Amino acid sequence: MRLFILISIFVLFFVSYKRKSKTDEKQIELPWIRGEKTPVNKFMTIVGAQCGVTEQEIFNLRQQRNNIDETLWHICNKCLLENQETSNYENLISIYLFMERLSISMGQNANSLIKRRLHFELLQKKKDGMPLAIIISGYDSCKACRELDGKEYSIDEALKIQPLPPGNCTCLRCTCSYS
């Protein structure tokens, strides 16, 4: 009988603890300005978790900045600095990818960001032991990009000359890549 009572008390305690921890895990819905939740969700999906940034931190910084784009840009730059010190190429690639998208959404040309992202992709390929980088131009590429399609470079050569995006690329967001 005592054993039954002890087990019952344990079960009740465990169930109430589980309920409490599930309620504690619920996130408070933050009062975002209309239209700001979508870029924050994209940021959290692509970059946030890798950089250890929480939605609450973004919200707090947003209160000090002009708009959500400026806030996310600031956080991305902070994440870039942290990840460059560790040579975490995968995180750097993700951060630059998000910054490209953010730049495009603000109506700016993203090719300088793409060049940086592709540089880290080449470094990752070198780290993974890949000997060659073959250029693949996107289906909607400009003439300058299409001229590079299929060209092969050693990883070291591609890192040295950084052929993508080409200097005369007219794409707003160059879609060329290395394979």
Strand count, sense and barrel status of the largest sheet are: 3 strands, antiparallel
Order of helices and strands: HHHHHHEHEHE
- Main-sheet strand order equals 2-1-3
Round the mean pLDDT to the nearest integer and report it: 83
Q: Estimate percent helicity.
A: 55-70%
| Assembly level | single chain
Coarse shape: globular
SS class: mainly alpha
Low-confidence stretches: 10-26
Q: Total number of helical segments? A: 8
N-to-C span: 69 Å
- The value of Rg in angstroms is 23 Å
In terms of DSSP E residues, the strand content is 5-15%
**Could you tell me the number of beta strands?**
3
Would you give an account of this structure?
This protein has 179 residues and is mainly alpha-helical. Among the domains are: 34-108, no CATH class; 130-179, no CATH class. The protein is 63% helix and 6% strand. The protein has helices at residues 2-25, 37-51, 55-62, 68-86, 89-105, 111-127, 143-148, 155-161, and strands at 132-136, 152-154, 177-178. The protein has a three-stranded antiparallel sheet with strand order 2-1-3. Helix 4 packs antiparallel against helix 5 (89-105). It starts with a helix and ends with a strand.
Which SSEs are present, and which pair or pack?
Blueprint: H1 2-25, H2 37-51, H3 55-62, H4 68-86, H5 89-105, H6 111-127, E1 132-136, H7 143-148, E2 152-154, H8 155-161, E3 177-178
Helix pairs in contact: 2-4, 2-5, 4-5, 5-6, 6-8
